[in-house]
Prior knowledge:
57% of the residues lie in helices and 13% in strands. It is of the alpha+beta class. The protein has 3 domains: 19-115, no CATH class; 159-227; 235-300 and 308-401, Histidine kinase-like ATPase, C-terminal domain (Heat Shock Protein 90), CATH 3.30.565.10.
Amino acid sequence: MDELEISEHAGIEPRGVGFTTNKSSQQAEDSPLSSVRFNWQLKAILPVVFVLLVGMLLFLFATVSFRNVERHAILMVAGAGAIVICGVSIGALAFFIQRPMVELQEKMALVSEGNLDVAVSFARRNDEIGDLGRNFNYMMRQLRESQEEIDVLHRTQMSRAEHLATLGELAAGLAHEIRNPLAGIAGVIEIIGRDLPSTSPARAVVKDVRLEIVQINRILTDLLETARPHPPQICRSNLNTTVEHAVMLARQQVLSKPIKIELQQAPDLPEVEHDSDQIHQVLLNLLLNAVQAMDNAGADAGTGADAGKGEVHVEIGSRDQYASVTVSDSGKGIPPQHLAHIFRPFYTTKGNGTGLGLSLARRIVEEHHGHIEVASVVGKGSKFTVLLPFEMPTPEAAAAAS
Length: 402
């Protein structure tokens, strides 16, 4: 037997000896040679029939010298023997091979319907067919175990999603309720600051209050963006411009600090389909995180001349079908035990952080069908890489990829 072909659905392979035309368009596409196939029974029995016919011919020539009566009798006995041999061969093939194959087809049909609690009975045989059965049963056990793990993970993720949805609704409501009085407080503080004498020590307090209001407003904005995300407004534009704008704003934040932000642009980079406002938000978040990492590293090192010094390097490039933006710093790095959790919502190791910045950044990048990667070495710094496709995939391709 030189071929075993198992159909996707039980019963499409004919049981008798002969040949048939494959009417499945999918199988016709997958088979570049021919859409016509022979049953394995015919392939197995043809060599036997050929050998018997050759033997009958040789036997016929060998009995030429016999008398007709004796010759006819011998030929009849030989013919009957050939028929018996063919019948026994077909019966043996049907019992030892076809029956397990039919059972395997029936089990596979059940599997295709979603029933994974199946097993074949011929796995106890001590031959190649038994090996096939044992491998099939082992595969089904593995599938059942994987399905159980997937079910547990799905239930866990659904519970987590419901929890986050509840938190999101609560956060959105609180943000709206807080923003209105916060705007009033900011206006009052602005008036008080203008009315205070230039020599009043309260001016420093007013300045700190303004900064705290800005911080609270930023936290509320992150909460609203996480709870009620807006779909990106995609258009083809120059990624260098988007990155340069984010770097310019980040440089304004470090004017009074010994931190340099270097930008290496890619003038020959093709235009990228992206939402410039959202990608600007992602890059600014990464840049400010890098600055904070070096501030914290300087604070840990002490208050010497080198405290807080560092450099943030931003590089624009490409990788395969993606445009890349790399933000690397010389800060204190991220410990391995924290690295796997930094993109989780509300996860933070900062005393004044919300844990929403990186979570929001990853969501924005993924909505652009891109990726965000991170590598970090404790004591040497971290490197974040944002990968954005040059062209957004079609809805059909995006659905197939997901």
